Amino acid sequence: MKISEAAEQSGVTVATFKYYVREGLIPEGERLGANRTEYTQAHVQRARLVRALLVTGRLSINAAREVLAAVDSGTGFGPAFEAAQHALDSARPSDLEASPESRERVEQIIARLGWNTAGNNPGVEAAAQALDGFATAGEPVDDAYLAHYAEAAQRLARADLTALADLAGRGRSDAVVELMVVGTVMGDRLVSGLRRIAQEHESTNERKQDLS
Amino acid sequence: MKISEAAEQSGVTVATFKYYVREGLIPEGERLGANRTEYTQAHVQRARLVRALLVTGRLSINAAREVLAAVDSGTGFGPAFEAAQHALDSARPSDLEASPESRERVEQIIARLGWNTAGNNPGVEAAAQALDGFATAGEPVDDAYLAHYAEAAQRLARADLTALADLAGRGRSDAVVELMVVGTVMGDRLVSGLRRIAQEHESTNERKQDLS
Asked: Could you count the other beta carbons within 10 Å of the beta carbon of residue B60?
């Protein structure tokens, strides 16, 4: 297909598509003549993944390159997933480092729930920073609250992995990483929005109970 | 107490405390002489709430004023909660408006779960924008995924409201709004971090199942 069609199917402009090629994020098309380069469905899939990494995930070009290298290494789902998680984490605005006490509390809840992790998961730092944020604001979180949050997070992760496993079953590790990036960013927003609606519902219930 | 002690107990500098007073966010202290103004525990509580609104919630001075007016109106927990939710929402970076289709899907899940909402909850727009984000990235969300997310959000909200109800039982609506602001911002980060850890756990399980 022509570059204009490949760009359209990828959801980017022709200028952006050319930029991805120039940066080596998408392989060159096959030159069929002075004014014609042929692109394939594989280019479209790669361009969609690059767009997910750069636009949705807000990764730097270099971080995107690392994730693409993991995807291309052919070692499968796991390493690409891990590379994407770490790259996404480094794209977030960095806060102060979490306190050892809060990291310890997060490690404890991981142990209590029997979660398997390699120990360098970026979520530990993020969760510990949030616990510090509650404490600094004078509203430290109790164990019951943290346990409810962890159980809800596990339910979210199970839904995420079910969706990813569906895709992985079809053998497309580029699509898996794309959904992982999109799902990480958009999933955070989705749960944030739904939680606000549920808060209103629960606060209405709460007030009814107060009156009864 | 002196302003230096009030500032310290509020977790802000004396300059910041004075700024809050100048902006009318904290009432003036009682003048006991040319060089002495007396502040009370009520000033400290108010300063902590103002700090939560401005620093943690990133509200503008004007938005903070509106929330404080709702707290001071004495109409209780509900209106202050609602004012804070809307103010927090307006402090977020605004995206494109959500599509009517995605808003409709969010309304459907609300109806299916029997959630009570007044219909203008800012979470509807946020959740609908996230659904649009998935769709734009070529990874539309199916109903099962959305339902799992909504159920997890309800579990989070129940933990939030239990913590708020504990405080409200002690009759401090300023503290309730403070926890609401801190909990909204920090709770989003907490679940985001825990979800990443749970994803790693679930993906390890997933791979084990693949091998068996």
From this structure: 13
Q: Which of A138, A157, A204 sits opposite B48 (nearest CB)?
A: A138
* Pure H helices in chain B: 3-10, 14-22, 41-51, 61-72, 77-91, 100-113, 122-136, 143-168, 173-211
Residues of A in contact with B164 (CB under 8 A): 203, 206
The ipTM assigned to this model is 0.79
Q: What's the confidence (pLDDT) of residue B211?
A: 41
Min Cα–Cα distance to chain B from A83, Å: 12
* B162-190 as b/e: b if 16+ CB within 10 A: ebbbebbeeeebbbbbbbbbbbbbbbbbb
Within an 8 Å CB–CB cutoff, is residue B72 touching chain A? Answer: no
Q: Could you read off the pLDDT of A177-211 as tens digits, one per residue?
A: 788 888 888 898 899 999 989 988 887 765 555 44
Residues in chain A: 212
Q: How far apart are CA B16 and CA B12, in angstroms?
A: 6
Chain B partners within 8 Å of A202 (Cβ)? 154, 157-158, 160-161
pLDDT of amino acid B171: 66
Closest C-alpha among B189, B156, B178, B135 to residue B46:
B178
Interface of B with A in 93-152 (CB under 8 A): 106, 110, 115-118, 121-131, 133-134, 136-139, 141-142, 144-146, 148-152
Query: For every residue of chain A, which 3-state class applies, written as one string?
Result: CCHHHHHHHHCCCHHHHHHHHHCCCCCCCEEEECCEEECCHHHHHHHHHHHHHHHHCCCCHHHHHHHHHHHHCCCCHHHHHHHHHHHHHHHCCCCCCCCHHHHHHHHHHHHHHCCCCCCCCHHHHHHHHHHHHHHHCCCCCCHHHHHHHHHHHHHHHHHHHHHHHHHHCCCCHHHHHHHHHHHHHHHHHHHHHHHHHHHHHHHHHHHHHHHC
Cβ neighbours of A123 in B, within 8 Å: 192-200
Distance CA B120, CA A83 (A): 39
Average pLDDT (B13-34) is 93
Q: What is the pLDDT of residues B109-131, one digit of tens each?
A: 999 999 988 777 888 988 998 89
What is the rounded distance in angstroms from the CA atom of residue B194 to the CA atom of residue A151?
9
